[in-house]
Amino acid sequence: DAGVTQSPTHLIKTRGQQVTLRCSPISGHKSVSWYQQVLGQGPQFIFQYYEKEERGRGNFPDRFSARQFPNYSSELNVNALLLGDSALYLCASSPQLVGTEAFFGQGTRLTVV
Amino acid sequence: QQQVKQSPQSLIVQKGGISIINCAYENTAFDYFPWYQQFPGKGPALLIAIRPDVSEKKEGRFTISFNKSAKQFSLHIMDSQPGDSATYFCAASRTTSGTYKYIFGTGTRLKVLA
């Protein structure tokens, strides 16, 4: 069975540009969450989506947005990139909205130059 | 109240030894405490998790000890192996809220010497 898949694996962008990261959850999982992991730190919660609706948002600026599609895959968009947005962006999927294990993908390493 | 404090930041253990990583939390509404293992360039992988109605959970060489009154929990890796060398994160969540998010600790970089 395929786990959580994220694309691309690595990305280099210039300050001010926009980026879109993609995530396919485990088959049958309806919840997708996004986390940002800065080097040397633990992951920080950005968004949770369940059944195509935003169910939670972390302390991130409006430059960050996301959506979930009918097949439960998800995209994370970041506008007006800053150097500080350089991080590993992780997607996690869960079967339900709450109360179940979360399984992480391998992440997308974003470097902003 | 949303923080999870993790220690030590790094740990070096001899092969066959016991690795112990500690975490503390403030929010008593947290009711699910997983531990994740992360290798360089990879996403975190779930190792073991515990709920506060039990004081200990063991899976193979990995044991979580949970002290509800002290709001602390720890991961014990018995018979540590070089392949266990990785970064370990504790986390906490409220499974009863409308948003399911993990609050992660800052991580412990474990090195097991051969």
Structure write-up:
The complex is a heterodimer of chains A (113) and B (114). With 113 residues, chain A is mainly β. Chain A has no helices and 11 strands. In chain A, strands 2, 4, 5, 6, 9, 10 and 11 form a 7-stranded mixed beta sheet that branches. In chain A, strands 1-3-8-7 form a 4-stranded antiparallel beta sheet, with no helix packed on it. The mean pLDDT of chain A is 94. Chain B contains no helices and 11 strands. The termini of chain B are far apart. In chain B, the strands form 2 sheets. In chain B, strands 2, 4, 5, 9, 10 and 11 form a 6-stranded mixed beta sheet that branches. Chain B is mainly β.
Q: Biggest β-sheet of chain A, characterized?
A: 7 strands, mixed
User: From the structure provided, what is the oligomeric state, counting identical versus distinct chains?
Assistant: heterodimer
Secondary-structure-derived class of chain A: mainly beta
In whole angstroms, the N-to-C terminal distance of chain A is 37 Å
Shape, principal axes of CA atoms of chain B: globular
Strand content of chain B: over 45%
The helix-strand sequence of chain A is EEEEEEEEEEE
Kindly state the number of beta strands of chain B.
11
Helix content of chain B: under 10%
The largest interface is: A-B, 28 and 26 residues
Radius of gyration of chain B: 14 Å
Count of individual helical segments of chain B: 0
Mean pLDDT across the residues of chain A is: 94
How many DSSP E strands of chain A?
A: 11
Mean pLDDT of chain B: 94
Q: In this structure, how is the largest beta sheet of chain B organized?
A: 6 strands, mixed
Q: Uncertain runs of chain B with pLDDT below 50, 5 residues or more?
A: none
Unreliable segments of chain A (pLDDT under 50, ≥5 consecutive)?
none
Distance between the termini of chain B: 40 Å
The arrangement of helices and strands of chain B along the chain is EEEEEEEEEEE
* Helix content range of chain A: under 10%
